[in-house]
Amino acid sequence: MKYLTLAGHAEREYAPDKIFAASQKAKAAIAQFGGDAVINSTLGECLDEDGKLMVLPTVERMIRTMPVEEICSYAPIGGIPGFNEAVQISLFGQASQRFFVESAPTPGGCGALRHAVWNFLENGDAMLTTDWFWGPYRNICEEHGRRLETFPMFDEEDRFNCGALEQALGGLLERQNQVLLVLNTPANNPTGYSMTPEEMDRVVEMIRRFGALYPDKKITFCLDVSYIDFDDTFENTRRIFDCIRDMPENAMTLVVFSMSKSYTMCGMRCGALVCLGETKEAAERFKAAMSYSSRSVWSNVVRMAQRILVDINLNPEVKRQADAEREKFRDLISRRGETFYGEAKRVGLKCCPYKHGYFIAIPCKNPAKAAEILCGDNVFVVPQARGLRFSPCAVTTEKCLRAPEIIRRAIEKSEEETK
């Protein structure tokens, strides 16, 4: 092509992001038919019962009163003073006594995943995750010369499939010197499933066993907890961290932390890749490597978002207020999810096992066709490889009650048309 100088690796077709493409169709339908006639279940943002964006009042107040210097100034590459402590308080309730923790600021959870994929895999290696996953996982891997491999998330009894994980992890360790396992829990995107402490115990035991079997290989275990504050109570959701203990010397544990959901700041683009270090030296080496990466790709991360995180978590009174506000948001989304899930069972719509969170996944044979049929009913969902994603976070309770029957009919029609 004339007047085009892209390098070979950049010559690729870009398919519009399915989530944002579906959202644009929904917005066009709302403009034509009105909001009451449309069920827009596309983006992963909290909307209230009037369809307005939900932002924690404490966060909004801080944004509107922030000094301009805190808005426009650079932030240190490694985070503003107090950032690492604030991340720990947000994740654990206090500075960790069990791990040597270092946090690298990133543009949202997406940036944290980027750092994990780039720094903990070699070129051409595969990242391992469940077969129900957030679509950009694959994009991030491919953008950085890596691949994505998956294993079946659920067994025949709709429990986390530890057996499939063991087989897949063992296979990767036979082929790669570096292995990165990413598990998105609690409140998995797109299923809303949360691993139990017993399931997490089995995964950690598996890592210990593989660490001993492959002493010359490196195993990185990464928990993507972007939705942790929209699962269960604080105490119950943090039980998964108690499972991480007695890790082998050839393993490291990482956590993807995101302010997008927990602090309702999707557009502010702030999160962190967090190292739960077994030694101080390992944590410091992690921080140095991540700082180099950060300087090389985005320099520093939005200062105002970091300031809000620090000012909330290092002030107990402010934190209590923000936590109480978030709990109301969480309860609303949970009620919507339970409404949809309960009605789906009543009308015979099969869903993946749902516990809590922003999303519910609906398996089907032809997701693209089913989503297309639903557009004709003014119901907009996100088609994925294995089914449809519905977003209780963005849909009113009344529409969560209406949607399952409409979706069931659309899936039946899509399967009849593809016979």
Q: Care to describe what's here?
A:
The strands form three sheets. The protein has a seven-stranded mixed beta sheet, with helices on both faces. The chain has a three-stranded antiparallel beta sheet with strand order 9-12-11. Helix content is 46%, strand content 14%. The chain folds into two domains: 15-57 and 323-417, Alpha-Beta Complex (Aspartate Aminotransferase, domain 1); 75-314, Type I PLP-dependent aspartate aminotransferase-like (Major domain) (Aspartate Aminotransferase, domain 2), CATH 3.40.640.10. The two termini are 41 Å apart. With 419 residues, it is of the alpha/beta class. Helix 4 (83-92) packs across helix 13, helix 5 crosses helix 6 (136-143) and helix 14 (316-347) packs across helix 16 (397-417).
User: In the CATH scheme, what's the topology name of the largest domain?
Assistant: Aspartate Aminotransferase, domain 2
Main sheet characteristics: 7 strands, mixed
| Integer count of domains | 2
State the end-to-end CA separation: 41 Å
Strand tally, please?
12
Average pLDDT rating: 96
Gross morphology: globular
Residues in helices, as a percent range: 40-55%
Low-confidence stretches: none
CATH superfamily (homologous) name of the largest domain: Type I PLP-dependent aspartate aminotransferase-like (Major domain)
Structural class: alpha/beta
Number of helices: 16
CATH architecture of the largest domain: 3-Layer(aba) Sandwich
> For the CA atoms, what is the radius of gyration?
21 Å
- CATH class designation of the largest domain: Alpha Beta
Provide the spatial order of strands within the biggest beta sheet. 2-8-7-6-5-3-4
H-E order:
HEHHHEHEHEHEHEHHEHEHHHEHEEEH
Portion in strands: 5-15%
Cofactor: pyridoxal 5'-phosphate
Domain Aminotransferase class I/classII large: 42-403
InterPro entries: Aminotransferase_I/II_large (IPR004839), Asp_trans (IPR000796), PyrdxlP-dep_Trfase (IPR015424), PyrdxlP-dep_Trfase_major (IPR015421), PyrdxlP-dep_Trfase_small (IPR015422)
Family: Belongs to the class-I pyridoxal-phosphate-dependent aminotransferase family.
